[in-house]
Write a structure and sequence with these properties.
By secondary structure, the chain is of the alpha+beta class. The protein has eleven helices and 26 strands. The chain binds calcium ion.
Length: about 425
């Protein structure tokens, strides 16, 4: 696969995250336009509500793009997703005969505000990166018990909160919660002192599964509409005190950020790659019939208030032990119904190297080894005013399929009580 050229010239640069090969889906508004569906092309956004009204694209009997979410398109199913992608490519291709009709519906990205791209039906987060699970397990339970006995047999997950999933650009308020220092006699309540990020990918489920009926890994892969960058904000001090025996609760319920552009599974097709070799054979219902991870370069930057941005982590989505398709198949294996708009967090994506660790807990080894962030400053955990940004892109031959960024700034905790 090479760069597909568009008459939108800014899309044809090898470094542009949004070439014709990508065409990610978002929701945007401007000073004069209400929130609506849009497609990124170069440094422009195609106003899909306007394109639909002009009858350049007719995907369903009723309009599906004049709303502030992509759920209606998801519910049309994989055949409609493919028709839409082919039609967009036709309209925006360098050889398109419809340029004059389409061009008036392009809005400069610089004039747009990005909104949540979907209504998140439910949010589930996994713990499916082996380097991360080994590092965190070593810190919490010692090296000998780092991986729980179930870990190599299934993707471990927990049900998170859809209500606190926010789009990139939304400030994050430091959570209050109950914590207990290991040497303290009693817990206290107050602002978290060990606030952290988790660098993850989010898979967006586009098709439903039926209550009571499992799906295969191959079917699960077909159900995935696309992927976003996901930051699973985590309060480590709250987590350490509350997590046994039912897993994280308030430590992760306060906020999850996602990037505004849904990069479709179709756009990522050239970047498929296999999960690492299995250390134990998986049960048949979890075995992958073909590669279902993706080669996506990921990084995290930290910018202190008034300071410069520093890269604190560089890794790759291909480091995961379980793919999103395996996670989705496992989720439905009991008969749990999956819904269009469900969001699955991959789990923290860490590589083997120290600079490849996807959260501060690992990067600073529980705060014992603070990292240098330049300007004479170090960090063990996140401080108020810090801006954390996730970056992600798949690199093709002379083109890039980018995710844009997922960025948030930390605001002080609410005084309570
Ligand atoms: Ca997580």
């Amino acid at each position: 696969m090479t760069l597909m050229t568009s008459w939108v010239e800014s899309a044809n640069d090898a470094a542009c995250p949004f070439p014709l090969n990508n065409l990610p889906y978002g929701v945007f508004s401007t000073n004069s336009l209400e929130p609506r569906c849009g497609v990124a092309i170069g440094d422009m956004i195609l106003d899909m509500a306007a394109v639909e009204e002009a009858r350049l694209i007719e995907l369903a009997d009723d309009p599906v793009f004049d709303v502030p979410y992509w759920n209606d398109v998801m519910e049309l199913g994989p055949e409609a997703w493919e028709i839409l992608r082919l039609r967009l490519m036709g309209l925006l291709h360098i050889d398109s005969t419809e340029q004059a009709a389409v061009a008036p519906h392009l809005v400069p990205m610089a004039e747009a505000r990005m909104e949540m791209p979907l209504v998140v039906a439910e949010y589930t987060d996994f713990y499916a990166g082996k380097h991360h699970a080994s590092n965190v397990g070593t810190m919490f339970r010692g090296a000998e018990n780092a991986l729980p006995p179930n870990w190599l047999h299934m993707p471990i997950g927990y049900n998170g909160r859809a209500s606190s999933v926010v789009v990139s650009g939304t400030d994050i308020i430091r959570p209050n919660g109950q914590t207990k220092a290991p040497d303290a006699n009693a817990p206290v309540f107050g602002p978290s002192k060990r606030l952290d990020i988790e660098l993850e990918m989010g898979a967006i489920v586009g098709s439903a599964s039926e209550l009571g009926h499992p799906v295969t890994v191959a079917q699960a892969d077909e159900m995935i509409f696309g992927y976003v960058l996901l930051n699973d904000w985590s309060a480590r001090d709250i987590q350490a005190w509350e997590y046994q025996p039912l897993g994280p609760f308030q430590a992760k319920a306060f906020a999850t950020s996602i990037s505004p552009w849904i990069v479709t599974r179709a756009a990522l097709e050239p970047f498929r790659t296999s999960t690492p070799a299995r250390e134990r054979d998986l049960l048949p219902y979890l075995q992958e019939p073909r590669p279902m991870l993706y080669d996506i370069a990921l990084s995290v930057t930290l910018r202190p208030e008034g300071g410069e941005e520093t890269t604190i982590c560089e890794t790759n989505y291909s480091e995961m032990y379980y793919s999103s398709a395996q996670q989705l198949a496992h989720h439905a294996s009991s008969g749990c119904a999956m819904t269009p708009g469900d969001l699955l967090g991959s789990g923290t994506i860490s590589g083997a190297g120290k600079h490849q660790r996807g959260c501060l807990l690992e990067l600073t080894w529980g705060g014992e080894d603070p990292i240098d962030i330049g300007g004479g400053q170090t960090r063990s955990f996140i401080e108020d005013g810090d801006t954390l940004t996730l970056h992600g892109a798949a690199k093709g031959d002379g083109y890039t399929v980018g995710f844009g960024t997922c960025t948030s700034t930390i605001k002080p905790a609410v005084k309570f009580p």
